[in-house]
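Hey team,

Sharing the Transposase run so nobody has to redo it. Sequence (84 residues) first:
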Amino acid sequence: MDQARWHTSDQVEVPDGIHLSFLLSHSPELQPAERLWTLTNEPIANHSFENLDAVEEALFQRCRQILDRTIRNSQFAIRNCESN
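Structure output:
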């Protein structure tokens, strides 16, 4: 778990039998999901949304763009390999 304030607060109630292990400070390489932020912030950074559904829709559309681009790149690579 990262060391965000809301994870390390004295108000966090940890159930019996659970031990929290914290990642080193400033170590995004240990948290693979951190790499996704640069891909997903673009459609939501500096934007105002009416509600959570609108944020979700913007992120969904961005993920579709990334997936479509990945598929196109993969198809191009396959065709390129087959022609050689």
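The chain is about 50% helix and 0% strand.

Ping me if you want the raw files.
A.
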